[in-house]
From TrEMBL:
<feature type="transmembrane region" description="Helical">
    <location>
        <begin position="270"/>
        <end position="289"/>
    </location>
</feature>
<dbReference type="InterPro" id="IPR001851">
    <property type="entry name" value="ABC_transp_permease"/>
</dbReference>
<protein>
    <submittedName>
        <fullName>Branched-chain amino acid ABC transporter permease</fullName>
    </submittedName>
</protein>
<feature type="transmembrane region" description="Helical">
    <location>
        <begin position="296"/>
        <end position="312"/>
    </location>
</feature>
<feature type="transmembrane region" description="Helical">
    <location>
        <begin position="57"/>
        <end position="75"/>
    </location>
</feature>
<feature type="transmembrane region" description="Helical">
    <location>
        <begin position="193"/>
        <end position="213"/>
    </location>
</feature>
<keyword id="KW-1133">Transmembrane helix</keyword>
<feature type="transmembrane region" description="Helical">
    <location>
        <begin position="117"/>
        <end position="137"/>
    </location>
</feature>
<feature type="region of interest" description="Disordered">
    <location>
        <begin position="1"/>
        <end position="24"/>
    </location>
</feature>
<dbReference type="GO" id="GO:0005886">
    <property type="term" value="C:plasma membrane"/>
</dbReference>
<feature type="transmembrane region" description="Helical">
    <location>
        <begin position="30"/>
        <end position="51"/>
    </location>
</feature>
<keyword id="KW-1003">Cell membrane</keyword>
<dbReference type="InterPro" id="IPR043428">
    <property type="entry name" value="LivM-like"/>
</dbReference>
<feature type="transmembrane region" description="Helical">
    <location>
        <begin position="332"/>
        <end position="354"/>
    </location>
</feature>
<feature type="transmembrane region" description="Helical">
    <location>
        <begin position="144"/>
        <end position="163"/>
    </location>
</feature>
<keyword id="KW-0812">Transmembrane</keyword>
<feature type="transmembrane region" description="Helical">
    <location>
        <begin position="87"/>
        <end position="105"/>
    </location>
</feature>
Amino acid sequence: MSATGAVLPPRHRPVEPGDRPADRRRGSTLLRHLAVALVVGLLLVAVSYTVEPFRNFQLATVAAYLCATAGLTVLTGLNGQLSLGHGALMAVGAYTVALCQNAFADRGMTGGWLLPLSLGAAIVSTVAVGAVVGVAAARLRGPYLAGVTLAVAVVVPALAVTFDGVLNGEQGLSVPVEPPPASLGPYFPYERWQLWLTGAATLLALLLLANLIRSRYGRTFRAVRDDEVAARLAGIHVARTQVLAFVVSAATAGLGGALLAVLAQSVSPGAFSLTLSLFLLMAVVIGGLGRLAGALWGAVLLVALPDLTHSATELLTLSPAVAQRLEGNLPLAIFGLTLIVVMIAAPGGVQGLLSRLGRALLDRWSARRS
């Protein structure tokens, strides 16, 4: 209706925010992601009742690693920045949650709200470290960027040994965690509660990442990855975009490290060595860069590979010293061989191969119907 009280024709009415096609697409994308997260959450709850406790713990570990691999996928696959220091960012989150939980325990504080508060503190501290590293990384390219992140991967675990009065050196810190809520029953399996906790945190992180990828920021990340000069000419602040991508990736890595510390109920510098950073990078490449589903395959590989190598060494009749040395180096060798095979046979990673197979089957089915 106009100021004079006349009703305007439809083409002259002002467009409401919800009437714009972009708003409708954002709303439908958010609802679709919420529906997928809800379905996956229900499936996790159902699976947790059907598998043994150790499998629940393994699934919880996959969820924790998925936070880190998903963030690294956004940084490397979506924004084009190479990071060799995400294991160190996970260490920042793990030590933060350990310090917070110990501080609460020393003060006799209890309650279900303490652990989410510690996880939030872990994310904030990792974001701060990621912002500092991201500012430096935004000024560097190629091997110089890899060198800076490699230095972070070496320095951060070493700080735990340097400040042994606070971080307890090589022995690390314990992470006190309260048992499952009493409302779940006195005999509720602790591993099932761990899966519920890590699954909920990971699904929330993936929901935010999925919507970020589909938003204007995701398109900006891709533009900077594809051509920085063209992105700058289009009015995109390249350095600010790269720092934002690093901060988002650091936040999810910190959450993943904090969840791993909660699962293990301890944290030590040996758990976040340079090898972990290399494993994370190889995992996202094998799974499929730029795809959150590829990050899932990489997280599964990170958890399944140690079990496979342990089973392989048990089948061989070796001395204990040789078996221990082989079990320590075999995962990295298998990861390297798998990476070479994937790069030759499926450059898009496991998820890219599955996508091509799915499209081929769909095309064949459509051809048969026609």
